[in-house]
């Protein structure tokens, strides 16, 4: 089995683990599950994770190409920063906060990228431990437990970072506005920005927008409860698997 075939099997196995852990019957076992996080809302959050954080193998080629392009923006945001600084409307509206808002948007995209990196790390461990595919949920737990504490904490922090940005309703709405402006400028300059660059940022906007739509379904109090619950639950789970 090639490394890519192993990674594909890891992706499929990890999705099964997410499916299981975010079934309402499993969530209901948690003593700190918010009362308003009912079966329907649980399903919506699970679908979001499986669609945007941990999508199917078939969708990975498209996402990997887009994220490769987004990596360039994340590592070197100067090109985007120059475009933002040319908008008198955004500067007038947000002033000195504008650079920080763009950085927060890129930070959110980096969190999505961490999910992909996490699966790469699990693939490495599957090869090192000589665990054969297909991978059941217990196999995936074994692979997670074999990661270093540094890798584990890095993934935990990225997950918490993403939810904290989505939870900040004012910030995320501003991030969406800034990214929409960047996309409009890219479309007006096709000789400067390639179709792949535009498509990558469009995907980034969709990832953030769909997460924002989820939180819009909740009251401010419910948003805080869900943020606290999900981040604490994921941290407990991951830390419980460390050898």
Molecular structure report:
Helix content is 80%, strand content 0%. It is mostly helical and 243 residues long. It has one domain (3-240). It is globular. The relative contact order is 0.15. The model has no long low-confidence stretch (mean pLDDT 84).
Q: Count the E strands.
A: 0
Could you give the order of the helices and strands? HHHHHHHHHHHH
Rounded to the nearest angstrom, the radius of gyration is 19 Å
**Percentage beta strand:** under 5%
Shape: globular
In whole angstroms, how far apart are the ends?
Answer: 27 Å
Q: Enumerate the spans where pLDDT stays under 50 for 5 or more consecutive residues.
A: none
Topology summary:
Elements: H1 3-21, H2 24-27, H3 39-53, H4 57-75, H5 78-85, H6 88-94, H7 98-128, H8 137-145, H9 149-167, H10 169-188, H11 195-216, H12 220-240
Helix pairs in contact: 1-7, 3-11, 4-7, 4-11, 7-9, 7-10, 9-12, 10-11
State the gist of this model:
With 243 residues, the chain is mainly α. The chain has 12 helices and no strands.
Q: Keywords for this structure?
A:
mainly alpha
